[in-house]
Amino acid sequence: MAETHLQATAPDRGFLTPREDYSGLFSWIFSTDHKRIGLLYFWSIVTFFLTGVTLGLLIRLELFLPGKTIVEAQTYNAMFTLHGVIMIFLFIIPGIPAAFGNLVLPIQIGAKDVAFPRLNLLSWWLYAIGAAMALGSLFSGGGAPDTGWTFYVPFSVQTTTNVSLAAFAVFILGFSSILTGLNFITTIHRMRAPGMSWGRLPLFIWSLYATAWVQVLATPILGITLALVLVERLLGTGLFDPTRGGDPIMFQHLFWIYSHPAVYIMVLPGMGVISDIIPVFARKPAFGYKAIAVSSIAIAAAGSLVWGHHMFTSGMSDMAVLVFSLLTFVVAIPSAVKVFNWVATLYKGSISLDPPLLFALSFILLFAIGGLTGLVLGAPATDVHVHDTHFVVGHFHYTMFGGTGMAFFAAMHYWLPKIYGRMYNKRIATIAWGLIFVGFNVLYLSMKVVGMQGMPRRYYDYIPEFTRLNQLATVGSWILGIGVFLMFFNLIRGTFRGQPVGDNPWGGATLEWTTSSPPPTENFEVDPVVTHGPYDFKAAGIL
Amino acid sequence: MAEQEHGHIVGYSTFVAVWLALLVLTAITVAVSRIHLGPLNIWVALGIASVKSGLVIAFFMHMKYEGRLLRLSLFAALVTLAIFIGFTFFDVLYR
Amino acid sequence: MSEVHKDYAGAKFGMWLFLFTELLLFGGLFILYGVYLHRYPEEFVKAGGELNVVFGAVNTLVLLTSSLAVAMSITALQKGNRRLTLVLLAVTIASALIFLVNKYFEWSAKIHHGLYPDSPHLKELAPGESVFFGLYYVTTGLHGLHVVIGGALLAWVFVQVRSGRVHAEDFVALENSGLYWHLVDLIWIFIFPLYYLIL
C-alpha cells in the first residue's frame, strides 16, 4: 500500500492501522479481527469471481460458433465444471455471508467481534485450503474434473479425471461454511448490544441468521454425499451402483437435499443486503419489517422441503414429483412477500439513485424474472420440456447472478466506503452498472430463448439454427465483462485513492454508520446502547 | 455474570441410575431382536434406541438443565433430519 | 494473543450447533440405510446375520460406560475433585481404545471372510447384501473416525485438567469434549440395533 503520503490528510485508519504484533501479510492471515477476516474473504472471493468470469467468457466464446471455436471438447467440459465449482463454492456461497457478514455483522449488532474469533480465522483458512485444492485438481491426477459442479454419479465415479480431489476440496469448503454459520448464530444470540432486541435487528442480520441455520443443518449432507463419492472411487463400495444394489437416484436426493437449500444460502443474504439498502436510499423506514424478517426464516424452512424439483426427470416417483412441485410453488410466497415490501418501501420515498440503490433495484427486477421462470421449471409438465436446456442456465443465472451477484455488487458499493473510509467515483460506478445491466440481459435472455428452442446445456456443439442467439449471448457476455472489470477497477481505485468519507455517507440509521470510517479495531470507541430501530431515521437524527 | 449459568451440578447417583437404565434397555433391545415380529422389529429397535438416546441427551448431555434456546435448536435439528428422511420416502415408497 | 472473550453459554451453544452438523452428517447415511432397508428387507436380515452380536454388544457396553465416566468427570471437576476427574477421563480414553481394538478384530474377521468393499466374494452376493456391507463399512468407519477424534480430544482435555488450565471455574473445554463424546455414543446407540440386531 504505497499511499502512505496520503495518510496525513486521511482520517484515522482504524482497524487498517498497521499492527504491532504482526506485520505485512501476516497481520492479515493470522488476524482474528472480524473486519480483517472479512476483507481477507472479500479479496479472495473477488479474485475467484474474476477467475470464474474469465472462464464464463471463454465458454461463451467457444459457443460463438458451432463446432470447435477455441478449445477441444474435453477442455470445454473442464471449463464449465470449473466455472461452476468456482462460482458456486468459492464465490456465491461464501460471497455475502463470509465477506460482508464478517465485515458488518458484529458492528450492526453492536458487538466487538464474533463469538469465536479464532474459529472465524480457521474458516478462512479452510476456505483457502479448499480453494487451493479445487484449483490443484486441474493440474494433478487424471486431469481437470469434467463432471459439472454437481458431481452426478455414475459418471463422477467412473471418470478418470481428478474428481476425488475436487470433491474433497468441496468437502473442506463445506466445513468452512458450517463454521461461519455456527459462529454467526452464536454471535447473534449472545453478543447483541444492550437495547438491540430481536425487533431492532437490521434485516441483513435476520437474513444472515436464517442463512446460518441452513448452513449448519444442510451442509453436512453435502459433506457426506461427496465423502461417499470419494469412498466409491477409492474403495468401490457400490452404494450408488445398481448392479450391486445401489441407487444412483439416491445420490441425486442427497446432493439436492443440500444443494437446494444452498440456493437459499446464496440468495437470502443478498435479500438482506437489499432490505438494508432500500430504506436508506428511499429515506423511509422499511415497509413491513416483521414480514421481511419472518419471510427470511420462512424461506429457509420451506427451502429445505423442495429439493426434489431438481429431479423431475430422474425417474423419481410421480408422487414425489407432485409433492415437490406443490411445495416449490409455496416457496414463491415468502419471496414475493419480500419483493412487495421492498416496492412498498420505495413508494413515495425520497429516492436518491446512488450506485448501491441501482444495483439493489436491478436485483429486484432480475431476481423477479429469475424467480418467475423458476416456476416454469417448478411445474413438472413444462419442466420436462426445458429440463437440462439453456433455459435452466438462463434461469439460475438470473436468480444467482442477477440476484446474489447484484446484491454482492450493491453491498460493495454500500459498505466498502465504510470499511476503507474512502469513496469510489460514483459516475463511473453508474456507467459500470449500466453496462452490467444491459450485458446481463442480452446474455441470459438469449440463453433462455435458445433453451426454449431446445438447445441443451453443457453441450460443446449445437445445430446451426441456434447460431444467431448464441452469438447474441456471447456479445452480451462481452458487454457484461467490460462492465464488471470497469466496476472493480473503479472500486479498487476508490478504496485506495478515493475521497475520504465521513462516518455516514449514505445517511443510514443502523449501528455501523455511528462509528468512524474505517471502524476502530473493536468497532466502537464507546460501547453502544441501542435506543431505536434499524430504519428509524427520525430517532437517529438523520431526517 | 456468566459464572452463575453453569452452577448446576448433577449428582453421581443420577448418572449411575441413567447408566443402569441404558444397560437394561440394551439388554431389552437384544432380547427383542431375537423374537420375530416381522416389520415391527425395526420399529421396536428404533423406539428403544430413541429412548436410550433421549436419556443420554437429557442427563449425560445436561439437556434437561438447559434453557429454551438449546432445546428449541435441538428440536429444529431433529425435525430437519426427520424431514430429510421422510421426504425421501415420497419417492422411495411410491416408485 | 488477543483478549479471549469468555462466554460459557455461548461456547456450549456453539458446540451444540456443531453436534447438529454431526447428526446431519450421519443422517445422510441413515437416509441411505432407510431406503435400502425398504428395498431389500430380506437381504438386509441375511447380511446382518453375518455380523457378530457379541462384538456389537460389548462395544455398546464400552461406549455407554465411557459416556457415564465422562459425564461423572464433569461433576467431579465441579466439586473440585481433580484427581477423580483425571481417573474418570482416563477410563473414558481407555474405553475409546478398547472400542477401537474391538473394532479392529471385528473388521479383520470380516475381511478375512472376504467381506470388504469391492471384494470378489461381495460381488457374488445378492445386490441387497452387497449394499448392506457397503453401508456397514462406511457407517462404522465414519463412526470409528469419530471415536479416534473424540479420544484425542479427551486426551487433550486430560492434559489441560492435569496442568490446571481446565478447573472448577472454567471447564467448558471439558464439557464440550464430553458433549462430543456423548454424540459418538448416541450414533452408536442407533448403529447397534440397525446393523447388528436386524431381524
Automatic annotation (TrEMBL), chain A:
Pathway: Energy metabolism; oxidative phosphorylation
Superkingdom of origin: Bacteria
Record domain Cytochrome oxidase subunit I profile: where: 22-531
Topological category with respect to the lipid bilayer: Multi-pass membrane protein
Predominant location: membrane
Catalyzed reactions per annotation: 4 Fe(II)-[cytochrome c] + O2 + 8 H(+)(in) = 4 Fe(III)-[cytochrome c] + 2 H2O + 4 H(+)(out)
Root EC class: translocase
The enzyme's E.C. designation: 7.1.1.9
Membrane-spanning intervals of the chain: 39-59, 79-104, 124-143, 163-185, 206-231, 251-274, 286-307, 319-344, 356-376, 396-416, 428-451, 471-492
Keyword Coiled coil belongs to the record: no
Record localization: Cell membrane; Membrane
InterPro entries from the UniProt entry: Cyt_c_oxase-like_su1_dom, Cyt_c_oxase-like_su1_sf, Cyt_C_Oxase_1, Cyt_c_Oxase_su1_BS, Cyt_c_oxidase_su1_bac
Keywords: Cell membrane, Copper, Electron transport, Heme, Iron, Membrane, Metal-binding, Respiratory chain, Translocase, Transmembrane, Transmembrane helix, Transport
Matches recorded under NCBIfam families: CtaD_CoxA (TIGR02891)
Family of the protein in this entry: Belongs to the heme-copper respiratory oxidase family.
Function: Cytochrome c oxidase is the component of the respiratory chain that catalyzes the reduction of oxygen to water. Subunits 1-3 form the functional core of the enzyme complex. CO I is the catalytic subunit of the enzyme. Electrons originating in cytochrome c are transferred via the copper A center of subunit 2 and heme A of subunit 1 to the bimetallic center formed by heme A3 and copper B.
Protein name: Cytochrome c oxidase subunit 1
Organism from which the protein derives: Desulfuromonas versatilis
From TrEMBL, chain B:
Pfam family, one: COX4_pro
Domain of life (superkingdom): Bacteria
UniProt KW Protease keyword: no
Transmembrane regions: 12-36, 42-60, 72-94
UniProt cross-references to InterPro entries, sorted A to Z: Caa3_sub_IV, Cyt_c_oxidase_su4_prok
Membrane topology according to the record: Multi-pass membrane protein
Subcellular location(s) of the protein: Cell membrane
Keywords: Cell membrane, Membrane, Transmembrane, Transmembrane helix
Alphabetized NCBIfam families for the sequence: caa3_sub_IV (TIGR02229)
Protein name: Cytochrome-c oxidase
Gene behind the chain: coxD
UniProtKB/TrEMBL annotation, chain C:
Predominant subcellular localization, coarse grouping: membrane
Location relative to the cell: Cell membrane; Membrane
Calcium as UniProt keyword: no
Domain spans labelled Heme-copper oxidase subunit III family profile: 1-199
Keyword entries, A-Z: Membrane, Transmembrane, Transmembrane helix
Sequence similarity: Belongs to the cytochrome c oxidase subunit 3 family.
TM region positions: 12-33, 53-77, 84-105, 135-159, 179-198
Membrane topology designation: Multi-pass membrane protein
Pfam families, per the entry: COX3
Name of the molecule in the record: Cytochrome oxidase subunit III
Coiled-coil intervals: none
Lineage: Bacteria, Pseudomonadati, Thermodesulfobacteriota, Desulfuromonadia, Desulfuromonadales
Matches recorded under InterPro entries: Cyt_c/ubiquinol_Oxase_su3, Cyt_c_oxidase-like_su3, Cyt_c_oxidase_su3-like_sf, Cyt_c_oxidase_su3_a-hlx
PANTHER family reported in the protein's UniProt record: CYTOCHROME C OXIDASE SUBUNIT III, NITRIC OXIDE REDUCTASE SUBUNIT E
